[in-house]
Design goal:
Layout lengths: L1 E5 L5 E6 L6 H5 L7 E7 H17 L3 E7 L8 H14 L6 E6 L1 H13 L5 E6 L2 H7 L4 E6 L2 E8 L4 E5 L8 H17 L5 H5 L3 H18 L14 H10 L6 H18 L8 H11 L9 H8 L9 E9 L2 E8 H12 L2
Parallel strand pairs: 2-9, 3-4, 3-5, 5-6, 6-9
Antiparallel strand pairs: 1-2, 7-8, 10-11
The chain binds glycine (GLY).
Length: 348
């Protein structure tokens, strides 16, 4: 078992192991006293892992209940959020109780956003069961839901009490879900650690997760509320979120981020912001991993949604500009320049 402690305002541990789900209760005892725990999960993960987790929690002195919602990005909305809040209130969950987020990025976002707002904030523990949630989404306390106008437009920073990650759960994931995680891992390689690439190609899950967690931990500790260096983690996401939204979420987060990273890297080079065109090696690696990098939408369409990006402030947006593979910097441009940037990134 590997342990990382994230030293945010409220510090917490990230535990990474394999075949550890049935020990969940033992580890939760170290961060939560006996209380009521509501497991929030989706329809896919419920049938796979809810029982083993709830049994372990009950054996360790917790009273448990469960809320299940339909799996998929379409559930990450105000309706599901409000249904969960009402269900918690109906059960009489109090401030001394807690939420267990069992699942991938959508579950973590919905459960974390609920935990942050129910009774002005209660504790929650993340148990990520997808590669994507393990390498990125479950670290750093960013939780959000989608609005009709765009992705992640209502959100909070609310750190968990613990992240408990069992790498064995990835074995049940289909290829598309593995690619979602691979895209985020590639992001870490581009912004911070080129030597991650061969490990990503070999699908060396434990190594990749430990490195990504370690990189993200340092970034989040330096900038918990994303006013500076944490923005590097948005590489590929401005274009990527636009593609996800334009496809009505039929293009998965990882697929969209892969397209977004290539587009943004190419645009940065063509605008003279990057000294080298890292989109060329990046495209090769992503294709080797099995990503479809075709351009589905026009610059105008993507720009329309980029204007709703949560990262816009004061009429400007912060770009993540590669200096080389493994090193990026932040660069602000005006919204009028953003359209040209996206157009140059998409042009062949
Ligand atoms: N997923 C990017 C971040 O947590 O900052």
């Amino acid at each position: 078992m590997k342990k990382f402690t994230v030293s945010t305002d409220r510090p917490y541990d990230i535990l990474i192991g394999s075949n550890i789900l049935e020990k969940a209760g033992t580890y939760l005892n170290t961060c939560l006293p006996p209380c009521r725990l509501c497991v929030i999960t989706d329809s896919t993960v419920n049938s796979l892992y809810a029982q083993v987790i709830m049994t372990s929690l009950m054996e360790h002195g917790y009273q448990t209940s469960k809320i299940v919602f339909p799996a998929g990005e379409h559930s990450k909305n105000l309706t599901t959020y409000s249904n969960i809040l009402e269900a918690l209130a109906d059960e009489g969950l109090t401030r001394s109780d807690a939420i267990i987020a069992l699942g991938g990025g959508v579950v973590g976002d919905l459960a974390g956003f609920t935990a942050a707002t129910y009774m002005r904030g209660i504790a929650y523990v993340l148990i990520p069961t997808t590669f994507m949630a393990a390498v990125d989404a479950s670290i750093g306390g960013k939780n959000s839901i989608n609005l009709l106008c765009g992705k992640n437009l209502a959100g909070v920073f609310w750190q968990p009490s613990m992240v408990f990650c069992d790498c064995h759960t990835f074995e049940s994931l289909p290829q598309t879900k593995l690619l979602d995680g691979a895209a985020e891992a590639v992001k870490y390689a581009v912004i911070s650690e080129e030597s991650l690439f061969p490990h990503i190609l070999k699908r060396d899950f434990t190594y990749i997760i430990e490195r990504c967690v370690s990189i993200k931990k340092s970034i989040v500790e330096a900038d918990e509320r994303e006013t500076g260096v944490r923005q590097l983690l948005n590489f590929g996401h401005t274009v990527g979120h636009g593609i996800e939204k334009l496809s009505s979420y039929s293009v998965s987060h990882g697929q969209a981020v892969a397209k977004g990273m290539v587009t943004e890297a190419r645009a940065a080079y063509r605008c003279g912001l990057s000294p080298v065109d890292v989109s060329i090696p990046l495209e090769e690696i992503l294709q080797q991993l099995g990503f479809d990098l075709s351009a589905d939408y026009s610059a105008d369409e993507i720009y329309h949604y980029a204007l709703m990006d949560e990262k816009i402030s004061g009429g400007q947006i912060t770009l993540i500009v590669p200096e080389s593979l493994g090193k990026c910097r932040l660069h602000k441009i005006s919204l009028s320049e953003l359209k040209t940037f996206i157009r140059l990134g998409l042009a062949k």
